[in-house]
Amino acid sequence: MKSIWMVINNAYVFFGCTLYAGVLWALRFFWYPTWEVYTASNYYDHFIPPTTAATHFFTIVVPLMFMCHLIMIRSEWRTSMRWLSVAAMLCLVVSTVVGQMYIIPINRILATHIADNNEVSRLLREWMSLNDIRFIFMTLAWLLMMYYFGSKAYSWDTHHEH
After folding, report:
1. What is the CA radius of gyration of the chain?
2. What is the rounded distance in angstroms from the CA atom of residue 140 to the CA atom of residue 11?
3. pLDDT of res. 162
4. 128-145: per-residue pLDDT in tens?
5. Can you give the pTM of this predicted structure?
């Protein structure tokens, strides 16, 4: 029964990494280009509701990811896989710190209905640059988790050949 719970735990880590990285990939490749045309008169309705919704959503997902990462690290501590677990959690830590310390404050400023076009452009550029940091780290976390699960599957497959 313990192994089933570990599979569920570790699958949640991968699920969370996939969600987080996926949103950042979508931001970078699909939404970023259109944000350069935002002005003080049109940014609010297109920017604030989606970022507020994402913040609320990830406020639930990310703490559970941290908990599951810690469980994963503990379960892998005596194996060589511990470093994958630790590295993936560090990627989540960096992404969370960037989000909480730098991106959320910008969101709060933008939520005040800024009237200056230059200020809107400056803040959105800064916001996008900060999300590039998260994009890199969460992509790395996803790759680490993909390697983790791939290694586990390969190991299982080679030990259970017929």
Report:
1. 19
2. 17
3. 53
4. 999 999 999 999 999 999
5. 0.89
What's the rounded Cα separation, in Å, for the pair 10 and 74? 12
- With residues binned 3-state (H G I as helix, E B as strand, rest as coil), the percentages for the chain, rounded to 5, are 85, 0, 15
Q: Which amino acid is at 38?
A: Y
CB neighbour class for 37 (10 Å; exposed up to 12, middle 13-18, buried from 19): exposed
Neighbouring C-beta atoms of residue 132, cutoff 10 Å: 15
pLDDT single digits (tens) 66-108 = 999 999 999 999 998 999 999 999 999 999 999 999 999 999 9
Tell me the pLDDT tens digit for each residue of 35-53: 778 999 999 999 999 999 9
112: Cβ contacts below 8 Å, ≥ 6 apart: none
- Would you put residue 113 in left (φ > 0), alpha (ψ -120 to 50) or beta? left
Residue 75 neighbours by CB under 8 Å, 6+ apart:
6, 9
Question: How far from the centroid of its chain's Cα atoms is residue 155's Cα?
Answer: 28
Integer Cα distance of 45 and 41 in angstroms: 9
Q: What is the per-residue burial (b if ≥16 Cβ within 10 Å, else e) of 77-115?
A: eeeebeebbbbbbebbebbbebbeebbeebbeebeeebe
